[in-house]
Structures are given as structure tokens and as C-alpha cells.
Write a structure and sequence with these properties.
The complex is a heterodimer of chains A (100) and B (955). Chain A is mainly alpha-helical and 100 residues long. Chain A has a single domain, classed as Beta-Lactamase, CATH 3.30.450.60. Chain A is built from four helices and two strands, in the order αααββα. A two-stranded antiparallel sheet of chain A has the order 1-2. By secondary structure, chain B is of the alpha+beta class. Among the domains of chain B are: 222 residues, Alpha Horseshoe (Leucine-rich Repeat Variant), CATH 1.25.10; 128 residues, Immunoglobulin-like (Sandwich), CATH 2.60.40; 114 residues, TATA-Binding Protein (2-Layer Sandwich), CATH 3.30.310. In chain B, the strands form four sheets. In chain B, strands 11, 12, 13, 14, 15 and 16 form a six-stranded antiparallel sheet that branches. In chain B, strands 3-4-5-8-7 form a five-stranded antiparallel sheet, covered by helices on one side. A three-stranded antiparallel sheet of chain B has the order 6-9-10. In chain B, strand 9 and strand 10 form a beta hairpin. In chain B, helix 20 packs antiparallel against helix 21 and helix 24 runs parallel beside helix 26. The chains are: A mainly alpha (100), B alpha+beta (955). Chains A and B meet through helix 1, helix 3, strand 2 and helix 4 of A and helix 1, helix 3, helix 5, helix 7 and helix 10 of B.
Chain lengths: 100, 955
């Protein structure tokens, strides 16, 4: 998948074909979110990749298979993040320069 | 959607990641990381309080460093602080850190749990989801203890948002998988089942996973899910591809949900209700029909999703194993896939067909695909596919096609991948034996195996052929002739020499009439291989030679010369030397009669499960065993000891040293390792490592010398010794010539303390003295025993004491084991006893009036709550003794309850940490018949049965 590699551990009675599609659906979600995902997106936004995965899979089971619903949840979270961001931007930018 | 987050990230983090990526070497990377770690550490330690944003940024950096594979040993506290932040973004990072870097630091867990608790109670769905995700990702026991009771409530609450329900369902599933005992069943279970009817497909998807897991343990509680699942499935299967909107995946309606529903149904037998069953069969047929329709899309996602459902449907059909029509259709469908261009499908088809082959309805249908499968074995490019083909051939084999399949497998073996050769060898050996009509074919097959893949023919395989030849006199002559011919090949495998040596030593006389295989020819043929063989094989050949002296007196001089040669008599290997010396002497001093008796033909081996089958099962692991030991074709029970074959020499040998004469290559007479130490000192000395044959590691040696962690089975008297302590707490637990073990114990509620006194009865010091307590099986979760180490030396005549603190966590059935090991005069001693801790020790007597007793007695009237035993008295029937025993057993004795004054009635409560079990008992002696009837009623079925058994042995 566009230079991405996935590794999935399943139990021996698990359905292999549907597992392949789990990977595909996850790529689709990443694609939608990052806009044609690549390795760098995941490296620099690893926390986002985690959040998307948590919405899609939980405790090793598929939680939500609808692309729309998963992305809606992430989008909502991002909106909250945006709000929070607005409030703290002035101070943090200053600090940012000195700190890295 | 806009990629909102791209720019909003933490700049510091992005810069750090770029720095790391720009590092030219591993050293540079480590340097950069160490610099950053120092920076973060100083920030965290600094006096200035960090704001939430910085904290978040640093925690994120730590997380990244951790993901690069470095250890992170700080920052947990800051992450916990983030958890309690009100800002979503900070909370989110805090949770992520905790989820990825779980730390069982108890102090932190408490804080984390606190934060989670607040979020769960916050009624803010996003926060609740974060908390649930964290619990599900960590899934630790501590979290289970803290939240297992809350989550079901969230799951079934009417006002929970759909997304919260989804997370709660899977979170609960995770906790249940990790610690099933923590998740209480209750009225919520019924409401969970009804989530299958939920409007929201996502909720259904999550709920099905939970229900599937729960119903495996409590099938009856969840029975109602069958009809709900069927109707849900039927709605999905019959829906048009666009009906389900976003739940349609590449034109396949809700593939994940369908697969999960089909899996759920596999937890149950076919539905009993005819209407439900009809509807389900309709669904299954629809799926099979759809497989024949042209694909709606050329995309692989479409076919994968569709076939995922199809395979799951076939699994369900196989699981039901009751609809011949569907089974045959499934088989035909798989047959189509066998020739599909997608390797994955061919692989899966081979795999599923393996299980179909074991159904009586579809076995014949599977067999029609034999040519395709054989072709797959020959032409598939991927080794894992070839392996599945070999599995399938093995599964579809029966008397009608055995010869074809075995010969194909043999042919394949010549070019087979090294990784699967041994398995193929085992399979061929099993099939050849199982379906052998004439045993000459069997012998040919095994010899072919050795010829083609000698290195992969394990001991089990060639032991087995020897056993079969020994047991069947109709094949002995043929076997002798065939091995003789096989040995004439210029280069033959050492295993061939072993088989040949043994068979000619036993049955060489059957072909001695032919001048081409006269005794001297046989001998020189074998001896021509001798020098190229390993010590083990040479030892075997020496045994063959002494047998030759008995069978063919004319070879005596030649063979004696060989034995007398310096290379034998003074061989550096003690085993070879000993054999040469003993055989030479035996052949010179013993009369022909004695020789004939000592070297008599081996008696038949007792029939038992093929050790090869046992080995194959071990190799394949329990999961794959189903295809191999399905009841239809192999009803023989699975004998754990199958790996070690019985040795004939102990049965037949007239002289005490005869096991040296028998085949050393066959296992030595295996005295059970544990009992040896306890019973007989003499046996022990012989059994010690010094006396082990120096024959190179044979499998049974490995079997006889358990690693330091293993312990042997309890000694045979262990149960009897245990019984003595059911009704008393003090006494001598064990005694032999060396050692006496005394016990003193007291119990109160669910706690107990036991003193063990180990007395050295000899005048010699015991060394490496180490008594340990072992909890077999589940016992660890039922009983906690703390022991202190004792001194490793016990002087002659001295006594050491060991204190055990015991806590009963929940009801248990088997006592812990006490494994005692030490060295006495250089010889290792080891034996295992059962520690006299039985469930009744935690009895608290309860006094009650007759009225109360009967009321409770009636409350416990379910058949499984009662256990009853009628048994003969083993001791004189004395009312006073009986009373004392019952009191010793722990229950209160209630007078004036039973109308018959001869009878005894008792009551008590078993105290464990997790629960209390009330027990009522009644013992009715019948002096005339010298019999007792004992009845136990408790609220837990296993406890009733166990107490009844324990107590019944006391009278």
C-alpha cells in the first residue's frame, strides 16, 4: 500500500480474507484523513494513526466498519483540538521558538 | 475532508522527528535521543510548572522515542496529569501514552484508574470513549477489578451514545478475555443480546463480538441470540448492495458483520426451531448462490469480502455437519476454488476441504477432487499451499485410495521442501499402517521412506515398523528378505542399517535357507556397514551379532573374533565395550540352551496408539489436530505416553542383566522417575545418571531426566497418604528409609498455616535439599501457598522445619503438590507428594436448629447441588469414631435433627476469599449391611461431589 507495510496477528480460526480487508479499510481511512497517505504522514502524526485505529478496531475486534462514522469521530476530535488550540496559541508559539 | 491536523501538530515534536530522521548513523540517533531525554527530564524536574501544551509535547516525544525501541522510565506522572486535563487534546495524548506504555506501577495505576473513573462518569461521550479505549488497550487485571462492574452498565444504559456503546462492548470483551472471573453476569446479559436488534450497524458489529465470546462460556444464558442473529443475517444477506449505505463494502453488504454473525452461530448446534432453521438454511443457500453470480466489481476487495462470507458460511455448514445437501454444495464450491487463479483462495479451499473430508456426508465428494489436489502438491509454487495439499490428501485418505495417495506422497517426498519433510514422513507412515491390507506393502512403504528421506525418519517411525513386524508373523519373512535386499545398496541410510540389523537379528533365520542370503552373507553384509555407523547403531548391531550366534551357530567363530578384536573389547565407548565384553563371555560360557532362552525371539508388543500419531499431533499443535483425530476414522484414545514405546525386555527376560542384551535402541525399562526415589533405594542407585547408558541422547533419556522446573507425578501412595489427613491436621505424612516428613497444621476461616518437619533418618548429610510446593493446573488462582526456603543441607539425624502460609482464594479440587529433591550420598532423590490441604480444611462449623436445617436442605434441591454415595464400611462402624471423624472433617454435628438417631447430620460453611459455600451433609449408617449412605448438598456442584468423595473414603 503506497510503501506502507502492515502486519496483523490473528488466531488460526480467524477469517483470513476479512482480515485482509481490515487492513485495506484502515488504509482507506488513513488515505481519506491524510489525503493519500504515505509513510511520512504516519511517522510525523503517529498519534493520529493511533487514534484512527482506536476508532476502527478495539481490543482486537472491528468496532466500526463505516468509513463515514470513523472519520466523523476523528473529525469531531480534531474540532475539539482546534478549539483548544485557538486558546493556547499565543503563548505556545513563543515558547516553541526557543524550545524545539 | 480537510486534513485539519496537518499543520496543527506540535512543532517541537515535528522538528525532533526530523532531526532523528536526519541522523546519519545509529550513534548519532542515540546521541540525539539522549540529548532530548536530558532536556525533557530537566523540564519535568524544573521548578517552573509546565503548561499543558508543553507537557503534551514532551510526553509525545517520549512516546516517539519509545516507539523507536528505547526504554522510557519517566514521564508517567506527567502523562497521568494530562489524563486529568479538561482539554481534549491533552487528555488524548495522556491516554495514548498510558495505553502504549503500560506500567504496572501500583501507585500510578491507582491514579490512572481515578482519572478513567472520572471520565467514565463525565457523560461526555468523547471522554468516555477515550477512557474505554484505554481500558480496552491496556486490559490489565487491575483495570478489570476497577471497572468490570461499571462497563456493563454503560453498555446497556438507554442514554449511552452509539459510539460509547460500541466502545463499551469491545472494552468489556477485552476485560472478559483477560480475566473472565471479574466480569459479573447478570440481568444485563439479556439486554446485551438485544443489541443484535440495534438500529445502528456499528453497535451490532461490536456487540456480536462480545456475545460470541460470552456465549462460549455460558451458552444457555445467550441462547436467545440464535434467532436474533439469524434474522439479522437474513436481512443483510437478502439486502440489495446499496441498502446498507456506508456499511456496504465494495458492493458487499456488511461483510464484517456477516462474518461475525456466522461465527456466532458456530457456537451453537443447528437451531431447534424449524422456522429459524429454515430461514438460516435459506441464508446459507443464498450465500452459496451468490458465489455463482458474476462479480459486481473486478476489485480484489469485492471478491475478498464476498469470499470471506462464503468461507465463513462453509465453516458453519461444516460445523452443523447435518445438511448433506449443503455439505456437498460447499464441497463443490471449494472444488471450484481449487483451480482458482488466486493463490489465497486455493489455499483456503484446501484448508476448508480438510475439515469437510472428515464429515461422513461429504467425504466421498471431497475424494472426487483427488487429482486436483495431487496436482497442487506437485505444482503449487508456495510451500504453505503444498503443505495444505498434503494435509488434505492425508485427510481424504481411506482404504480405497490409500495406495495412490501414499505413492504420490512418496514421490513428492523426493523433492519436498526440507521444512515439511518430517511431517510428510510421519503422515506416510501413519497412512501406510492404517490402511495396510497386506503388510508387505507397509514394509515396502516404510523402507522406501527410509531410502528417500532417511534423515527425516524419526525413531518413532522405525520403532513402529519393528513393532509391527514383530507382532505379525505373516510379514516377518518378507521383511527380512526386503531389508536384506535394501542393505545391498552401496550407500544406505543409517536408519536402514538399524531396521535391517534388528530384523535380521530376529528373523534372519527365515531367509537363511537361500544360499544368496546364508548366515555368513547376512553377517558380512551387516558388518560391512558397521564401521560407518554411529555408536547407537553399532551397539544395536552388536546385539544382532549375539543373536546371530544363537540363530546360526556356524557364525559363532567369526563373530567371536569380531567381538574379541581390540577395537571392540577396548573401545573407548563404555557401552560398546560393555556389550562386547558381555556378549563375548555370554557366547563362550553359556550353553546353547541358556543362550537360546536368553536370546529368545522378542514377544509381541502390546497394542497401543501409534507413537507416530502422537508425534504428528505434537508437531501440528492442538489447533490442527482436529483433522487428524476426528472420531470417524480414529477412535483410539489419545495416550499422552504414546511417545515412549513399551519395552519388551522387562516382560520376557529371564536374567536380571538382560536389559543389556535386549535392544538398547529400544527404550530401557523405564522405572517411573518419581516413584523410584520414594520406594526403593536400590532401584534409585541404578537409575541415577551415572548408570545411564552412554548411548547418545535417545528420546527416552530426555524423557527420563526432567528439567529443574519439571516435577514428576505424585508417588502411587500419595492419595492414600492424603486421605489420612482429610479428618486430621497433624501426623506423619511420609516415611521411607531416608526421610520422614511430619505435618502440623491449623486452619481458620480461609487461612491456614502448616509446619512441615523433614527428618533425616540416616547418618549422612542430605545435600541440595529443596522441598517446593507446586500448583498444578488452575490451582494457582484457587489457592495461594507461601513457602520459606529451607537450608540446603540436612545433617544426618537432624530435622528441619518449613512453614507454609496458605490462603484459599476460591474452591479447589486438587491439592497442591510437594516436590522433594535432594542428594543422598551423591545419588539424586526426587519424589512428589500431595500436600494435605483439601477444601474441607476451610470448613467453619455452623450450628443450626432442625427447622433451619430442613429449610436450607430444601433450598439446595437442584440435582446438581447434591452428591450422594453409597459405600461399604472399610472400618468397624463405631458411632464415636464416626463423630470424631465428622468433627475432624470440619462440619458441625447437629443433634436432634434427623428423626433416626443413628444418622449423622452436619453443617458448615467453606470459607474462601472469593466466596462462601454453604454445605449440608447427612451420613446414614446401616450396621446390618455394613454400608453407609452419604449425601452432600452445597451450592456448588463440584464442591458437593468433591466433598462427598473425600468423606466417603474415611469410613
Amino acid at each position: 500500500y503506497a510503501s506502507l507495510y502492515f502486519c496483523c496477528a490473528i488466531e488460526d480460526q480467524d477469517n483470513e480474507l476479512i482480515t485482509l480487508e481490515i487492513i485495506h479499510r484502515y488504509v482507506e481511512l488513513l488515505d481519506k484523513y491524510f489525503g493519500s497517505v504515505c509513510e511520512l504522514d504516519i511517522i510525523f502524526n503517529f498519534e493520529k494513526a493511533y487514534f484512527i485505529l482506536d476508532e476502527f478496531l478495539l481490543g482486537g475486534e472491528v468496532q466500526e466498519t463505516s468509513k463515514k462514522n470513523v472519520l466523523k469521530a476523528i473529525e469531531q476530535a480534531d474540532l475539539l483540538q482546534e478549539d483548544a488550540k485557538e486558546a493556547e496559541t499565543p503563548r505556545s508559539v513563543l515558547e516553541e521558538i526557543g524550545l524545539t | 475532508m480537510p486534513a485539519v491536523s496537518k499543520g496543527d501538530g506540535m512543532r517541537g515534536l515535528a522538528v525532533f522527528i526530523s532531526d532523528i530522521r536526519n541522523c546519519k548513523s545509529k550513534e548519532a540517533e542515540i546521541k540525539r535521543i539522549n540529548k532530548e531525554l536530558a532536556n525533557i527530564r530537566s523540564k519535568f524536574k524544573g521548578d517552573k510548572a509546565l503548561d499543558g501544551y508543553s507537557k503534551k509535547k514532551y510526553v509525545c516525544k517520549l512516546l516517539f522515542i519509545f516507539l523507536l525501541g528505547h526504554d522510557i522510565d519517566f514521564g508517567h506522572m506527567e502523562a497521568v496529569n494530562l489524563l486529568s486535563s479538561n482539554k481534549y487534546t491533552e487528555k488524548q495524548i495522556g491516554y495514548l501514552f498510558i495505553s502504549v506504555l503500560v506500567n504496572s506501577n501500583s501507585e500510578l495505576i491507582r491514579l490512572i484508574n481515578n482519572a478513567i473513573k472520572n471520565d467514565l462518569a463525565s457523560r461526555n461521550p468523547t471522554f468516555m470513549c477515550l477512557a474505554l479505549h484505554c481500558i480496552a488497550n491496556v486490559g490489565s487485571r487491575e483495570m478489570g477489578e476497577a471497572f468490570a462492574a461499571d462497563i456493563p452498565r454503560i453498555l446497556v444504559a438507554g442514554d449511552s451514545m452509539d459510539s460509547v456503546k460500541q466502545s463499551a462492548a469491545l472494552c468489556l470483551l477485552r476485560l472478559y478475555k483477560a480475566s473472565p472471573d471479574l466480569v459479573p453476569m447478570g440481568e444485563w446479559t439479556a439486554r446485551v443480546v438485544h443489541l443484535l436488534n440495534d438500529q445502528h450497524m456499528g453497535v451490532v458489529t461490536a456487540a456480536v463480538s462480545l456475545i460470541t465470546c460470552l456465549c462460549k462460556k455460558n451458552p444457555d444464558d445467550f441462547k436467545t441470540c440464535i434467532s436474533l442473529a439469524v434474522s439479522r443475517l437474513s436481512r443483510i444477506v437478502s439486502s440489495a448492495s446499496t441498502d446498507l449505505q456506508d456499511y456496504t463494502y465494495y458492493f458487499v453488504p456488511a461483510p464484517w458483520l456477516s462474518v461475525k454473525l456466522l461465527r456466532l452461530l458456530q457456537c451453537y448446534p443447528p437451531p431447534e426451531d424449524a422456522a429459524v432453521k429454515g430461514r438460516l438454511v435459506e441464508c446459507l443457500e443464498t450465500v452459496l448462490n451468490k458465489a455463482q453470480e458474476p462479480p459486481k466489481s473486478k476489485k480484489v476487495q469485492h471478491s475478498n469480502a464476498k469470499n470471506a462470507i462464503l468461507f465463513e458460511t462453509i465453516s458453519l455448514i461444516i460445523h452443523y455437519d447435518s445438511e448433506p445437501n449443503l455439505l456437498v454444495r460447499a464441497c463443490n464450491q471449494l472444488g471450484q476454488f481449487l483451480q482458482h487463479r488466486e493463490t489465497n483462495l486455493r489455499y483456503l479451499a484446501l484448508e476448508s476441504m480438510c475439515t469437510l473430508a472428515s464429515s461422513e456426508f461429504s467425504h466421498e465428494a471431497v475424494k472426487t477432487h483427488i487429482d486436483t489436489v495431487i496436482n497442487a502438491l506437485k505444482t503449487e509454487r508456495d510451500v504453505s499451499v503444498r503443505q495444505r495439499a498434503a494435509d488434505l490428501l492425508y485427510a481424504m485418505c481411506d482404504r480405497s485410495n490409500a495406495k495412490q495417495i501414499v505413492s504420490e506422497m512418496l514421490r513428492y517426498l523426493e523433492t519436498a521442501d526440507y521444512a515439511i519433510r518430517e511431517e510428510i514422513v510421519l503422515k506416510v507412515a501413519i497412512l501406510a499402517e492404517k490402511y495396510a491390507v497386506d503388510y508387505s506393502w507397509y514394509v515396502d512403504t516404510i523402507l522406501n521412506l527410509i531410502r528417500i528421506a532417511g534423515d527425516y525418519v524419526s525413531e518413532e517411525v522405525w520403532y513402529r515398523v519393528l513393532q509391527i513386524v514383530t507382532n505379525r508373523d505373516d510379514v516377518q519373512g518378507y521383511a527380512a528378505k526386503t531389508v536384506f535386499e535394501a542393505l545391498q545398496a552401496p550407500a544406505c541410510h543409517e536408519n536402514m542399517v538399524k531396521v535391517g540389523g534388528y530384523i535380521l537379528g530376529e528373523f534372519g533365520n527365515l531367509i537363511a535357507g537361500d544360499p544368496r542370503s546364508s548366515p555368513p552373507v547376512q553377517f558380512s553384509l551387516l558388518h560391512s556397514k558397521f564401521h560407518l555407523c554411529s555408536v547407537a547403531t553399532r551397539a544395536l548391531l552388536l546385539s544382532t551379532y549375539i543373536k546371530f550366534i544363537n540363530l546360526f551357530p556356524e557364525t559363532k567363530a567369526t563373530i567371536q573374533a569380531v567381538l574379541r578384536a581390540g577395537s571392540q573389547l577396548r573401545n573407548a565407548d563404555v557401552e560398546l565395550q560393555q556389550r562386547a565384553v558381555e556378549y563375548l563371555t555370554l557366547s563362550s560360557v553359556a550353553s546353547t540352551d541358556v543362550l537360546a532362552t536368553v536370546l529368545e525371539e522378542m514377544p509381541p508388543f502390546p497394542e497401543r496408539e501409534s507413537s507416530i500419531l502422537a508425534k504428528l499431533k505434537r508437531k501440528k499443535g492442538p489447533g490442527a489436530g482436529s483433522a487428524l483425530d476426528d472420531g470417524r476414522r480414529d477412535p483410539s484414545s489419545n495416550d499422552i505416553n504414546g511417545g515412549v514405546e513399551p519395552t519388551p525386555s522387562t516382560v520376557s527376560t529371564p536374567s536380571p542383566s538382560a536389559d543389556l542384551l535386549g535392544l538398547r535402541a529400544a527404550p530401557p525399562p523405564a522405572a517411573p522417575p518419581a516413584s523410584a526415589g520414594a520406594g526403593n533405594l536400590l532401584v534409585d542407585v541404578f537409575d541415577g545418571p551415572a548408570a545411564q547408558p552412554s548411548l547418545g541422547p535417545t528420546p527416552e533419556e530426555a524423557f527420563l531426566s526432567p528439567g529443574p522446573e519439571d516435577i514428576g507425578p505424585p508417588i502411587p501412595e500419595a492419595d492414600e497418604l492424603l486421605n489420612k489427613f482429610v479428618c486430621k491436621n497433624n501426623g506423619v505424612l511420609f516415611e521411607n528409609q531416608l526421610l520422614q516428613i511430619g505435618v502440623k497444621s491449623e486452619f481458620r476461616q480461609n487461612l491456614g498455616r502448616m509446619y512441615l518437619f523433614y527428618g533425616n533418618k540416616t547418618s549422612v548429610q542430605f545435600q541440595n535439599f529443596s522441598p517446593t510446593v507446586v500448583h498444578p493446573g488452575d490451582l494457582q488462582t484457587q489457592l495461594a501457598v507461601q513457602t520459606k526456603r529451607v537450608a540446603a543441607q540436612v545433617d544426618g539425624g537432624a530435622q528441619v522445619q518449613q512453614v507454609l502460609n496458605i490462603e484459599c482464594l476460591r474452591d479447589f479440587l486438587t491439592p497442591p503438590l510437594l516436590s522433594v529433591r535432594f542428594r543422598y550420598g551423591g545419588a539424586p532423590q526426587a519424589f512428589t507428594l500431595k500436600l494435605p490441604v483439601t477444601i474441607n480444611k476451610f470448613f467453619q462449623p455452623t450450628e443450626m436448629a432442625a427447622q433451619d436445617f430442613f429449610q436450607r436442605w430444601k433450598q439446595l434441591s437442584l440435582p446438581q447441588q447434591e452428591a450422594q454415595k453409597i459405600f461399604k464400611a472399610n472400618h468397624p462402624m463405631d458411632a464415636e469414631v464416626t463423630k470424631a471423624k465428622l468433627l475432624g472433617f470440619g462440619s458441625a454435628l447437629l443433634d436432634n435433627v434427623d428423626p433416626n438417631p443413628e444418622n449423622f447430620v452436619g453443617a458448615g460453611i467453606i470459607q474462601t476469599k472469593a466466596l462462601q459455600v454453604g454445605c449440608l451433609l447427612r451420613l446414614e449408617p446401616n450396621a446390618q449391611a455394613q454400608m453407609y449412605r452419604l449425601t452432600l448438598r452445597t451450592s456448588k456442584e463440584p464442591v458437593s461431589r468433591h466433598l462427598c468423595e473425600l468423606l466417603a473414603q474415611q469410613f
